[in-house]
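Q: What changes when 4-nitrophenyl beta-D-glucopyranoside is included in the input?
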Amino acid sequence: MDIQFPKKFLWGVATSSYQIEGAHTKNDKGKSIWDTFAHTSGKIKNNDNGDIAIDHFHKFKEDINLMAEINMSAYRFSISWTRILPKGKGQIIQKGIDFYSKLIDELLSKNIKPLVTLYHWDLPQSLQDEGGWSNRDTSKIFADYAYIVIKELGDRINFVSTFNEPAVFTIHGLADGYMAPGISDFDHFISSVHNVNLAHGLSMQSMRSIRSDLELGCVLNLGPCIPCTNNKDDIDASRIYDMYWNRIFLDPMYKGKYPKDFLEQIDKYFRNGDMQIINQKSDYIGLNHYQHTRVKADPTHLLKARGAYGNEKPFNLENVELTSMNWEIAPESYYKQIMELKNEYNDPIIYLTENGCSYPDKIENGKVDDFKRIEFYKKYLAAVQKAINNGANVRGYTAWTLFDNFEWALGFEKRFGLIHVDFKTLKRTPKESYYFYSEVIKNNGFNI
Ligand code: PNW
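A: The predicted holo structure follows.
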């Protein structure tokens, strides 16, 4: 094989609860901020929502079979907080716990390691009504939720991530309002960042109080920031955005310090002892990476700096092939990001928890020939192997994602799956990339 991976490398896929489960009111599941946001007219492309999504709640056995058929060794999924605690705290729904319990049993029976995420953006709406992440109490409530998950499921899982992409849900949910809960308020944003960091630390403590041998960490979306022009404004903006996008969670969690400028901004929220809570010993860093960010100065934006989001094209870039998200294909930035974690964050164990691409795939003659996705994976996996060859301690890769699903504010239009889903019939049809991935797993590598 041209590209070969280490023995025992984990191969799998990643998903998240709201994007696939559906069954939005089943067994008294409570509302999350995404239920509310998706039902607010004009927030989601085509006014789509995740009420049914791809009905994974009812089809999970058939879905796990599709993983087992190609011998995946890991499955990263998230738990819906309001399926277990409809109001985020207080009443516990046993049937909600039972769903995840059955899912985990099914995975283990097929030798697939469950990689659990506690929070993939679906904050209970009733906690949002009390201030959401800007309310310091939410951190403590989150730690209680984490405790319940380990108490109920911790006999069969040991890999847990506290948060998925805290920078994405705070910047896009609370600074520019593009995602749920759709707030745009600087104080709300910065206090929430600090409280999410506290929630990370407190939940690591509460989970370890039940089981000391869990593998714990956080999943962060990281990537190089590049000024979109050589103008001083954009160069400064790129530094600012790098701080918000890449450092305000990674540094306190993994280095025990906030970037200096950010510490000044949150001064009034910071209490003695907070950094000791946040900076728990972690077992790994989960890296989600799709592309680098071309940053421009934007005085109208709360952060004064921003990258493209939604369906915007990268700023100041012409004649480059983009995926259907308008994202750049830049595997060298993936390599650079992995090496930066190795070199500047104390050579951590790294799991590549998301990476993938969206294309407008269609079924033709019973087949989905998504050759562009296969090309994408070849390039990005080659970058991973290069990083491993240069000493990065990468232990596994979970592709985003198994199925076409609800792509947040862009609804069902963007298809990231290895498996095509017809959103009317919910029929699943493996794409050519699924068969490619099956070969990668079988050979623990591939030929270029
Ligand atoms: C990640 N951005 O989201 C999430 O973890 C997934 O839930 C999502 O489906 C996947 O990547 C693909 O988008 C992101 O605007 C959403 O920069 C938006 C951005 C980044 C990540």
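Observations recorded in class: The pocket of 4-nitrophenyl beta-D-glucopyranoside is lined by residues 16, 19, 164-165, 168, 221, 288, 309, 354, 400, 407, 416 (CB under 6 Å).
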